[in-house]
Design goal:
By secondary structure, the chain is of the alpha+beta class. The protein folds into two domains: 192 residues, Beta-grasp domain (Ubiquitin-like (UB roll)), CATH 3.10.20.30; 233 residues, Uridine Diphospho-n-acetylenolpyruvylglucosamine Reductase, domain 3 (2-Layer Sandwich). Helix content is 32%, strand content 21%. It contains 18 helices and 18 strands. The strands form five sheets. The protein has a five-stranded mixed β-sheet with strand order 2-1-5-3-4. Strand 1 and strand 2 form a beta hairpin. The longest helix has 19 residues. The protein is globular and about 70 Å long. The chain starts with a strand and ends with a helix. The relative contact order is 0.09. It binds flavin-adenine dinucleotide and FE2/S2 (inorganic) cluster (FES) (2 copies). The site of flavin-adenine dinucleotide has 32 residues, from strand 6, helix 8, helix 13 and strand 14.
Length: 481
Amino acid sequence: MNQTLQITLLLNDELLTVDVPPGMVALDFLRKQRQLTGSKEGCKEGDCGACTVIVGELQNSQVRYRPMTSCLLPMGELHGKHLVSIEGLNMEQLSPVQSAMVECGGTQCGYCTPGFIVAMTAGLMDETIPLSEKGHDFATSGNLCRCTGYRSIKQAGQQAFRTLEPDLSGRKSRIKALCSAKALPKHFLDAAEKLCCIPQRKQILPPDSEYTGPIVAGGTDLFVQKGEEIPDTFPQLLNQKAISPALESDGVIRIDARSSFEAFARDPVIQEAIPNILKYNDLIASWPIRTRASLGGNICNASPIADMTCLLLALEAELVIFGDSGKRIVPLQNFYLGYKTLAKKGDELIAEIRFPKPKRNERINWSKVSKRKILDIASVNSAAKIEAEGETIKQAIISLGGVAATPLALNQTSRFLQGASLSSSTILEALSVAQNEISPISDVRGSAIYKRLLARQLIAQHFVNLFPDTISEEAVCEALR
Ligand SMILES: Cc1cc2nc3c(=O)[nH]c(=O)nc-3n(C[C@H](O)[C@H](O)[C@H](O)COP(=O)(O)OP(=O)(O)OC[C@H]3O[C@@H](n4cnc5c(N)ncnc54)[C@H](O)[C@@H]3O)c2cc1C
Ligand code: FES
Ligand code: FES
């Protein structure tokens, strides 16, 4: 029989204490144990959004709500939290989001509809999301529909955002206003009070103090790969303890490896260090995946096209690793020994990621090419940190993903660029050095030849984007001909 864990959570408007296998996903709990079947099982891989729920967590006596895909969300993490399914958004009358879906014909078979309504509502609840078309697209970036077509769904969402804009704009907290506007049920108003009554606890160990399952951070890779197995084990759930924001001291930025992509991108310390981080983040996965996907998980999953890993390589990140034999520090670029092979023992944890705070004249750029603009894995991605003084390159660190068995730091190219002139001819030579460092293979994301071309374009683009006054796109294109 599965080892279970006792957790207390607020499920919609009901405070519940339940015994659950910690690795059971919230979707199965909702549908199979609570008969709350509004959350749908579509892909069970985080791709379709039909299972989207909203999870609220206490932060400074306020509840902070974020959307998550319940098919990848382990129940063991939900102690002390507010789990809101589509049923928890229902009221006596339709909410403005639900009404707009009806009025605009935003639903046909209805399978994706609960997920869209939950995602749109989550977007309305988050004060950082603009009440505009852009905000609506951000909120629904993780939802797919296979029969209605997106035009009417988008019209519905935009209508709801427009209708509620006067009630919400300028509000520090939108929850109260949404309740007054009958866009959220009243049970949201005393959620903080109810969550405060649940005793917090330290990380939970299984009764025999031995985990029988994997280390799980956000679970966005693991539940896709081992979703059937994990509920039968007692996994080590890293997110049971609170995660602190990034810290900067003595020119070094330190960040908890469990930080989600969203937390990383919205952190003021990170935004100062990487000014375009929010723009980059929007091109990775979808909002409900980014609220879960962690930096440590991205690094340890060891995909050659891991997006954040590519960026961290160019930032010269180091990993602080803890295990039975103590603490050690490993440069990220030395962490990969081969395809999906890490310089790490099974029980070792990456606790922290740190990198030098970029100096004022170090410029950073990251980009990826994928078949779809959002919610797609890169064919090739690349990042660069380049420091120039006048027309001389002082230092350039360039990374590439999708062109070798592991995410790659282009050390030879970086050495070639150091001290070279900032010119189209240097870029041209650097591109041929880079071509000798990579070994792409043909796969579903593109042929080896195509990936070589993408690598060339992405590296050249770093220089054009970072030094527009010195390097023009036309001059680089001319040199590349
Ligand atoms: C729909 C979807 C879209 C996606 N899109 C993208 C994308 O655009 N770009 C991209 O790069 N990735 C994407 N991913 C992949 C995934 O979201 C990321 O790789 C994510 O960073 C994994 O982090 P996690 O916390 O969810 O890892 P988990 O699934 O929890 O763990 C992954 C691996 O890392 C290990 N691990 C996790 N944390 C630690 C730690 N601190 N110490 C030691 N080991 C650890 C786990 O044991 C496991 O082996 C996508 C995934 C999905 C489902
Ligand atoms: S079922 Fe598709 S994202 Fe969860
Ligand atoms: S209404 Fe059928 S999948 Fe969207």
